[in-house]
């Protein structure tokens, strides 16, 4: 079973801290959603996992080994980035061949099927592919790699809604027949939230939240009602958003509620809405 | 079993609900097999662990039972268990909001009674 541990992990670029003493642990063959606003540190964390560079301080280990400069470990990690995944002068065929030699668990049959599904021709040149088709190639390599840790960082720039849906189908299919850890970073939260077994949210280089997806639904509430009643019912709760409109107060609490007040309306948010409330600047200031 | 999932409800509960509805509607009968976790996962593009959670919830409630190596089946008493469960839920999820709204609109007791009687007489 894969265990990823980051402990007080810090990475600075020219004095700017992309990761600030991040401590988090991922384990098991799960599909994990890695969320965060732009600049929250997601890509930096994924690049550290893939061994692209070394941290400034702190530790990062995968099954107790450091990923940086570790050939044997990096064969078990397939990291598909937003772009620049492949050498421009190559042909699709050469990319596929190289990947098949690098990744020990490579599934050639699945790669062939995916090439057909995404209508990619092995003879095409990388620099002649559209943005969407380049993303498709990244997805094909990521899925067919069958790497024990597969990381997708916004893998579908330029892919239309229909092909994105195909990606979710194929990813689930492949995951079911061959369970492995899949980390998926995305801004299209509503589209993919149902794929996640766990969700981690980074905010300003730190871990904001790490939770089982279904638990997130239990852990928050949207309350709507008379201002006085709402204030009275929520003063001891962790309120992450509040607004007033037409004499009614609406608050979002990140907390559990055991007893419901009869004049208050209780509702749930989608993961995307919850994410927005959790990471908005006003929220960060309120919490200080 | 087509049914759109809502964003604001736990998915596993919705999966359990889809199965319950098909049993109550008579689409799946006692001792018939329900689709596997993987089929649910594919149908709704959801994590298979979530689908499994919904199915296991119904196993706990003796609505489904497992045949090792074959799959999940509907129990003999599933229909009645679901009916009882829904009767219990009826008051909280339908009567309470109805009463709250009725109070808000200042509806009289007689008016409410009359509507309920009329509604029961009409064959809905």
Automatic annotation (TrEMBL), chain A:
It comes from the Bacteria. Residues 4-229 form the ABC transporter domain. The keyword Transport applies. CDD domains: ABC_DR_subfamily_A. Keywords: ATP-binding, Nucleotide-binding, Transport. The keyword ATP-binding applies. GO terms for molecular function: ATP binding; ATP hydrolysis activity. Pfam families: ABC_tran (PF00005). InterPro entries: AAA+_ATPase (IPR003593), ABC_transporter-like_ATP-bd (IPR003439), ABC_transporter-like_CS (IPR017871), ABC_Transporter_VariousFunc (IPR051782), P-loop_NTPase (IPR027417). PANTHER family: ABC TRANSPORTER ATP-BINDING PROTEIN ALBC-RELATED. This is ABC-2 type transport system ATP-binding protein.
Automatic annotation (TrEMBL), chain B:
PROSITE patterns: HTH_GNTR. Residues 9-77 form the HTH gntR-type domain. GO terms for molecular function: DNA binding; DNA-binding transcription factor activity. Pfam families: GntR. Keywords: DNA-binding, Transcription, Transcription regulation. The keyword Nucleus does not apply. The keyword Ligase does not apply. It comes from the Bacteria. PANTHER family: GNTR-FAMILY TRANSCRIPTIONAL REGULATOR, HTH-TYPE TRANSCRIPTIONAL REPRESSOR YTRA. This is DNA-binding transcriptional regulator YhcF, GntR family. It comes from Pelagirhabdus alkalitolerans. The lineage of its organism: Bacteria, Bacillati, Bacillota, Bacilli, Bacillales.
């Amino acid at each position: 079973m894969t265990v990823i541990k980051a402990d007080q992990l810090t990475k600075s670029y020219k004095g700017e801290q992309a990761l600030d003493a991040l401590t988090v642990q991922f384990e098991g063959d799960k599909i994990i959603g890695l969320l965060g606003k732009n600049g929250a540190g997601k890509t930096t964390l994924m690049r550290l996992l893939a061994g692209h560079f070394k941290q400034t301080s702190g530790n990062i280990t995968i099954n107790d080994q450091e990923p940086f400069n570790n050939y044997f470990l990096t064969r078990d990690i397939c990291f598909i980035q937003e772009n620049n995944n492949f050498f421009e002068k190559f042909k699709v065929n050469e990319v596929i061949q190289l990947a098949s030699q690098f990744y020990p668990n490579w599934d050639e049959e699945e790669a062939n099927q995916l090439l057909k599904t995404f209508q990619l021709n092995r003879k095409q040149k990388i620099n002649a592919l559209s943005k969407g088709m380049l993303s498709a190639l990244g997805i094909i390599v990521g899925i067919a790699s069958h790497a024990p840790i597969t990381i997708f960082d916004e893998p579908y720039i330029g892919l239309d809604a229909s092909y994105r849906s195909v990606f979710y189908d194929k990813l689930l299919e492949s995951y079911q027949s061959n369970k492995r850890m899949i980390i998926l970073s995305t801004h299209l939260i509503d589209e993919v939230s149902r794929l996640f077994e766990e969700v981690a949210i980074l905010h300003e280089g730190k871990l904001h939240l790490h939770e089982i997806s279904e638990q997130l639904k239990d852990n928050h509430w949207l309350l709507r009602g008379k201002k006085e009643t709402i204030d009275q019912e929520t003063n001891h709760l962790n309120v992450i958003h509040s607004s007033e409109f037409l004499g009614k107060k609406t608050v979002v609490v990140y907390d559990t509620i055991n007893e419901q007040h009869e004049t208050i309306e209780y509702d749930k948010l989608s993961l995307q809405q919850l994410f927005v409330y959790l990471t908005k600047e006003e929220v960060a200031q309120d919490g200080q | 079993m087509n049914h759109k999932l809502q964003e604001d409800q736990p998915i596993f509960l919705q999966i359990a609900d889809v199965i319950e509805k098909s049993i109550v509607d008579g689409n799946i009968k006692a001792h018939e097999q329900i689709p596997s976790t993987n089929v649910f996962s594919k149908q709704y593009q959801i994590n298979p662990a979530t689908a499994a959670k919904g199915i296991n919830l119904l196993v706990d409630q003796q609505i489904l039972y497992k045949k090792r190596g074959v799959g999940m089946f509907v129990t003999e008493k599933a229909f009645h268990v679901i009916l009882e469960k829904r009767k219990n839920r009826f008051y909280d999820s339908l009567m309470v909001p109805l009463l709250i709204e009725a109070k808000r609109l200042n509806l009289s007791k007689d008016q409410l009674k009359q509507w309920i009687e009329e509604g029961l007489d009409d064959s809905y």
